[in-house]
Structures are given as C-alpha cells and as structure tokens.
Fold this sequence. Notes:
TIM Barrel; two-stranded antiparallel sheet; 39% helix
Amino acid sequence: MNNYKRRDFIRLGAGLLGGGFALAACNNSSDTDKVPEGDSTNAASDAKAAATAALGAFGLQLYTLRDDFPKDVKGILKKVADMGYTQIEGYEGDKGAWWGMSNTEFKSYCDSIGLTMISSHCNTDKDFEKKAEMASAIGMKYLIYPYEGGDKTIDDYKKLADSFNKKGEICKKNNIRFGFHNHAFSFKAINGEIPQDVLIGNTDASLVDFEMDIYWVVAAGQDPETWLKKYPNRFRACHVKDRSKTPGKDDGLNSVNLGTGSIDFPKILKTAKDNGMQYYIVEQEAYPNETPLDAAKADADYMKAVKI
C-alpha cells in the first residue's frame, strides 16, 4: 500500500469495536470439476485452471479497489470473482467488522461466488486476541501487520520483532499465522544493518512469517530474489505489484499494471515458489489511465497468463 493511504486506514481501524475488520473465510470452488466439453460457461473455470497450472491460485488485496469496495461490497466481490481471482486479502475500514454484513453473511456470500479470504491486514494494537479468535473461527490463514514507518532505530526494530513474537503466540494458540508486510523502510540500511534482517533474525520462524511486497523491495534498491533465497520459507505470502519503468519521486504513485513495469515477475515468482511462497496477492495503488476495476482486471489477466 501507499504509505500515506495505509496510515489513513490504520487510523480508521483503530476506531473499530473489538473484531471490527473485514475478515472472511470463503470456501473456494474446485478448479478441477469435470464439465461437459464445449460448454461456454466454463471459460472462466478453464482460465483459472490454466493459471493454477502455471502458478497456483492467486488473490487480490481489496485495498486495490478502496474507492469502490465500501460502496458496493457484494457487487465488487462478484466482479473480483468474475475477473478470475479465487482468493482475497482484506484490510480494515470504517464500515465495521463485515462491511455492513455479519461474519456468516459475508462468508456465505463469498462461498456462493467462489472466493476464499486468505488473510487481512489489521490494526494489531487493538483487540488483537479477539481478532485472532474470530479469524480462526472462520478458517483464515493470516493476520498481517500492515505498516511500519521510517525514523526507526535498529533497537526499535528489535523491539518490534519481540512484539511480533508475542502476536505470533496469540495467533498460534488460535491455529492461524501472524505476518509482517514490508514497505521500503525495512529494506534500507541503518548504520550498516538492514532492518529486515533484524526482524527475520529476531523472530521465531514457528510464530512469524513475512509477506513480501515485491514492489517496495525493488523501490528500496534491493533484489527480491536475493532475499527469497537468503530466507527460504520465511516469506510465505507476497504482494505482486509492478513498478513504473520511469518512476517519479513519490513512490506511492509509481504502481502500474502488471507486466507494464520494470519488475521481472516470471523470474521472481519462480524463485518465490521454489523457496516456500504460498500466496500470491495482487495489489495496485495508482491508476493513471484507467479505473481501479479496469486495472484489477488487467492484473488478473496477467496472472492467468504468467509463466514461471
């Protein structure tokens, strides 16, 4: 996510009542169901199966559609499913726990359109035990710490790692996992040490995983493949987000459609898969020439076709 926008929704999330964030676990329809040959209604299923063969299932971080999603939750989710996404990742907003629905209503609707919510970014400083309990009850895989800004010391990152271990303990008791989503900050050296090394080195692998935002690793001047190989099985989820070939100074605005930017995703995603990556979550933050929905559709088409 864009640094500034992410701070906005974290502040909104802090004001929600216990468990008040968009979480759902929605059973995924099978991509291998047998269908009559020549049935035109199976085009979307065939596309999903082809994508699964190449990469595995892929999802969408709903923050990509932040301008549209809160206005028409069911309608947008249906459009996301129709694009070919089979997984979603949530984020906290200002419409309560289930975006105007109960948790069971949200789950039931997702079930009906073939979406599975894998994870959600959330405010981990408020009602976290309740959130972990709720996530576990509906079969989610992850709760994600979404943002840590700059102006930190190495000691600050060590303390952050300690807090992650504690959050990870809470998640483990509830049969889910805890993860950290990076921005560029944790990949930039502080007095010769890279904070991401500190976070990984000071967290228990049985308790804490990492969601690599590939875009922000590149924006920090680092090579994602180097990190994936250095820490196999620690990066279990990723944000698949492309970066402009001619980036401007405001890095939050350099997000572009997958396949049109500077990041070599076929190469990186193969390395990711070879080193324990399990979840591939599309995210886009800027849309210079189209709507967010159009961008999400273009990104889904790329993910269906990508060869690794």
